[in-house]
Design a protein that fits this description.
Number of strands: 12
Strand order of the largest sheet: 7-8-9-10-11-1-2-3-4-5-6-12
Structural class: alpha+beta
Shape: globular
Order of helices and strands: HEEEHHEEEEEEEEEHH
Distance between the termini: 47 Å
Helix content: 10-25%
Low-confidence stretches: 5-18
Radius of gyration: 19 Å
Length: about 260
């Protein structure tokens, strides 16, 4: 029996009531930009047996800076330094403003958006209807089992391990009899792959940047984000209150879509 599994059993009762994590998992989220360029973002799942938080650490870092006057001043200095050096890409930003909070027997709280608009909505905690197969694989040293499901317009294949008794995974994926270490959908546009696993007793903290997000519902959010994706220049012009023009037309692949596609 693995030491990490033993640690989870020993600490679950002691810390879960305090909203502290039993485990932290890093994931690489590979997906495609509307220009067809592949992107990879680091995401973190912090979870115990009853609740979890999935987020981008750079976004949380920016939110933490903006939470205090001292931090805001420091962040302004970073942005100014990036502007004067011509290296704004090196300045921390909310490139993935995503937070997913799951509470078993409760709700899933979703914060998501883009550089121009960010939204928040709540929905019932609802695990996917998984079909567990007899296929196995080894990921990060853990024996994993294959499972598939259809969820909000996409067909997902996941690999989970019963050696880690956390019924959770990246993004909204959950409900299998063990931690999901890998998941990809059939079009090839999105995939999540675990990069590290460690024990943790860190708190599952709320989204301190929640004030930046407009409350809505899931379908309305996806439709609004799609309108922006289809015409980002107009979207940026509207959000900034200035007219933006580009010298050359940018070709967008409109077949590239979000993690959920059932909003059409």
């Amino acid at each position: 029996m693995r030491p990490l599994f033993l640690s989870l059993i020993m600490t679950a009762c002691a810390v879960s009531a305090q909203s502290r994590a039993d485990i932290e998992v890093g994931y690489d989220w590979h997906h495609y930009h509307r220009t067809g360029k592949e992107q990879c973002h680091q995401m973190i799942l912090r979870a115990n047996t009853s609740e979890s938080k999935f987020y981008n650490p750079m976004t949380e870092y920016v939110d933490s800076l903006e939470a205090t006057p001292e931090g805001q001043a420091q962040y302004n200095q970073m942005k100014m330094a990036g502007f004067t050096s011509g290296n704004m890409k090196g300045t921390p930003g909310r490139s993935v403003p995503m937070y997913i909070f799951k509470t078993v027997d409760g709700t899933t709280e979703v914060y998501d958006g883009n550089i121009s608009m960010m939204f928040h909505y709540s929905e019932p905690y609802t695990p996917q209807n998984w079909n567990i197969t007899d296929s196995t694989s080894v990921i990060l040293g853990y024996e994993c089992i294959k499972a598939t499901c259809d969820y909000h317009g996409r067909h997902w294949t996941a690999w989970f391990t019963t050696e880690l008794p956390i019924h959770d995974g990246p993004w909204k994926l959950c409900g299998l009899p063990g931690l999901i270490l890998s998941a990809d959908e059939s079009s090839g546009q999105h995939s999540f792959t675990a990069t590290y696993i460690s024990t943790s007793d860190r708190p599952i903290t709320p989204n301190i940047g929640a004030g930046h997000y407009e409350t809505t519902d899931r379908i309305s959010m996806l439709k609004a984000l799609r309108r922006f994706e289809d015409n980002p220049i107009a979207g940026l012009s509207a959000s900034l209150g200035v007219k933006i023009t580009v010298k050359d037309d940018i070709e967008f692949d409109k077949s590239i879509d979000f993690l959920e596609t059932d909003y059409r």
